[in-house]
Design goal:
The chain has 639 residues and is of the alpha/beta class. The chain folds into three domains: 3-333, Ribokinase (UDP-N-acetylmuramoyl-L-alanine:D-glutamate ligase); 337-381 and 492-635, 3-Layer(aba) Sandwich (Rossmann fold); 386-483. The chain has 21 helices and 23 strands. The strands form four sheets. A nine-stranded mixed beta sheet has the order 5-4-1-9-10-11-12-13-14, sandwiched between helices. The longest helix is centred in the last third of the chain and has 25 residues, at 459-483. The protein is globular.
Length: 639
């Protein structure tokens, strides 16, 4: 989908949201400046920052407003209190109509979630409104207002968020009757926690757990109830309208009369916050569908909207149109998540260790026209152990041990969180430029807050520290390679150099592309004796994070193919690598992606730790090393 052909919408929809209106209050606390109460002996905490945000149905409405809805009105109930007034102020700021927001004086507190953070740790939440009861007169008036305004809407979203909120039995009955009566006047959508099986004649958006609970209550076997495709199809047949099933990291399913279509999840390298992502998905889905997009394309807009929300920490994360466009331009997807997680689902070529992900991929007569190779871990093992080195440097950086003195002491639980965040960052960014990784490290250092923002070193300084540590870990291997004590075979993945020579002799144009600095990459390729094989060039990082060398090489190859009159058909270009970045670039370009499960310590055999990230990146085939190059060539019809 060309996002610029979609956004901004040529015919933006008018949308009503009816449901549970909530207010999210955030408190960011610490002990600095606080004291122990003289009267009670209890510790007090300083609130350094606080903010307020729309939640529940208000969050959905804010998402629709940010994504360009022509008109967005909210219908629900607030209390006669300061929190309700705060909600009205936020709605006015965002241009959301509040004519359907009613104030109930009795038996109603505004729904407020008090979210308290001590550093990065979320403390127990304090909620208001858990015993609310809407009066029948309030519910009736609200639905009368909604019905009177239906002629002005393209879509209506029904939101059910809290256990004791707007959706009383009386309200459920009257709203269901209103939908039945006006089922053909507007597009009705529903997103409910407990009432997904109730509001008929709506397009349901629900998650996998909710779908499973509905089917389990109907006596469906646990195995089938937990199968997303089975659940989506069964619920579509039961309800007679499209079903959108969100599956978190596994993406989403869209089931309608055309069948079941998958919507891949986004690969997000930076730290995420899942709060509000479901609401953002719904807002993107409904605005896009209301603007005339197909349901599948609308779900893709919803995915990008949720991706924007995920990247906003400590807030509900209302997506804005510009943010969605930017993410759609540069965003990457995850592929085959269930297969990636479960090695037992793998399909191997009989008698080999070659795992086939996409049958038929790479098939052609003769060797590829061009091949792109990653370097470290794919061809060379000179930098074996770089992940451990980077992990240590990043943990020190987050803990405040780089670029300053007097680093704070960190307790065991917090240090474990640092290690987990650093490991996740390295796992998700493997293969990109080192400098780009250090930019993400800087953001992580700021987020943890052990280093004052103005004292955080520049990403270039973190890179220098890492490079020094890595060079120290490589020093003996480099010395032994220079003296001849270690041969090229000792410092490369098994069979890789012979495979390169085989491709070059067959006329395949070879490119070397790596996130390593280009000067170092060229020197190491010369040291190991295969630099001359890469007639397409050796491309490394030049310190410009906006121009990743792997992306540049892919773009250049596509340009060369088009200039020669070709179209870059799948199989004409092969990409080999042990990281997800090159797999994703191959996937986007329609090239054949070969993931290398290299064990860099042994130089041969399968490293299962790389399997998940390579499959998620879009690999078509997995090989342990290039001793299987002959079998791969025969499998693909190259020889």
């Amino acid at each position: 989908m060309d996002i610029h052909g979609v956004l901004p919408y040529k015919n933006p929809p008018s949308i009503a949201v009816v449901g549970d209106i909530c207010l999210d209050l955030y408190y960011f606390t610490g002990t600095e400046g606080a004291e122990v109460s003289v009267e009670t002996g209890l510790r007090s905490y300083s609130v350094f920052k606080s903010k307020q945000d729309l939640g529940g149905a208000g969050n959905v409405a804010a998402g629709c407003a940010g994504l360009g809805a022509r008109k967005i009105d909210l219908y629900g109930v607030i209390g006669n209190d300061c929190w309700g007034k705060m909600i009205l102020g936020l709605l006015a700021e965002k241009g959301i109509g509040a004519g359907g927001v009613l104030v109930q004086d009795d038996n109603w507190q505004t729904h407020v979630y008090h979210k308290i953070y001590l550093g990065r740790e979320e403390l127990p939440r304090y909620d208001m409104g858990n015993t609310n009861r809407p009066a029948d007169t309030t519910a009736g008036t609200l639905l009368d207002l909604l019905e009177s305004g239906l002629g002005g809407y393209d879509c209506v979203i029904v939101n059910e968020q809290v256990p004791s909120g707007l959706h009383s039995p009386y309200f459920q009955e009257k709203l269901a009757a209103l939908i039945e009566k006006n089922r053909d006047k507007v597009l009705w959508f529903s997103d409910c926690r407990k009432l997904n099986n109730y509001y008929n004649h709506t397009i349901r958006k629900l998650n996998g757990r909710e779908a499973g609970e509905i089917l389990a209550a109907q006596g469906v076997s646990p195995e089938n109830a937990a199968d997303p495709r089975f659940a989506a199809k069964r619920l579509y047949e039961q309800w007679g309208l499209p079903v959108i099933l969100t599956l978190g990291e596994d993406g989403a399913l869209v089931q309608d009369e055309t069948g079941c279509a998958e919507c891949n999840s986004l690969h997000i390298a930076k730290e995420i916050d899942t709060v509000g992502a479901g609401d953002a998905f719904l807002a993107g889905l409904v605005t896009a569908r209301g603007a005339g997009l197909s349901l599948g394309d609308a779900a893709l807009v919803g995915t990008f909207s949720a991706g924007v929300s995920l990247g906003k920490l400590f807030e509900a994360g209302h997506p804005e149109m510009g943010e969605v466009i930017a993410l759609a331009e540069e965003g990457d997807f995850n592929y085959n998540p269930r297969l990636a997680r479960d090695e037992g689902l793998g399909r191997f070529v009989p008698g080999t260790e070659i795992e086939v992900i996409n049958a038929g991929a790479g098939q052609r007569r003769g060797f590829p026209d061009a091949a792109i190779f990653d370097h470290d871990g794919t061809v060379s093992v000179l930098r074996q152990g770089w992940e451990e080195v980077m992990n240590a440097v990043m943990v020190d950086a987050v803990s405040g041990k780089i670029g300053r003195t007097g680093a704070p002491r960190i307790n065991g639980a917090e240090l474990a969180r640092v290690h987990s965040a650093v490991s996740s960052l390295i796992e998700k960014t493997t293969g990109i430029q080192t400098l780009a990784q250090m930019y993400q490290l800087r953001d992580l250092v700021i987020a943890f807050g052990y280093v004052r923002k103005e004292e955080v070193p520049a990403p270039e300084e973190y890179k220098r520290v890492y490079n020094r540590a890595l060079l120290a870990s490589m020093e003996k291997r480099l010395r032994d390679a220079g003296s001849g004590r270690l041969s090229t075979g000792d410092l490369t993945v098994k069979g890789s150099v012979d495979f390169l020579k085989k491709l070059a002799a067959a006329g395949t144009k070879l490119y070397l592309a790596s996130g390593t600095d280009e000067e170092d990459l060229r020197r190491e390729a010369r040291l190991l004796g295969y630099a001359d094989l890469f007639t397409g060039g050796i491309h490394g990082s030049l310190g410009d994070i906006k121009n990743d060398p792997k992306k540049i090489v892919v773009r250049n190859i596509i340009a060369e193919i088009r200039a020669a009159g070709g179209r870059g058909k799948e199989g004409s270009v092969a990409v080999f690598g042990d990281g997800p970045v090159e797999m994703r670039e191959a996937k986007k370009a329609g090239f054949f992606a070969v993931g290398v499960l290299s064990d860099e310590k042994r130089r041969y055999g399968r490293n299962p730790a790389k399997r998940e990230r390579l499959i998620l990146g879009g690999a078509d085939i997995l090989i342990p090393d290039f001793s299987w190059g002959g079998e791969l060539a025969k499998l693909c019809g190259w020889e």
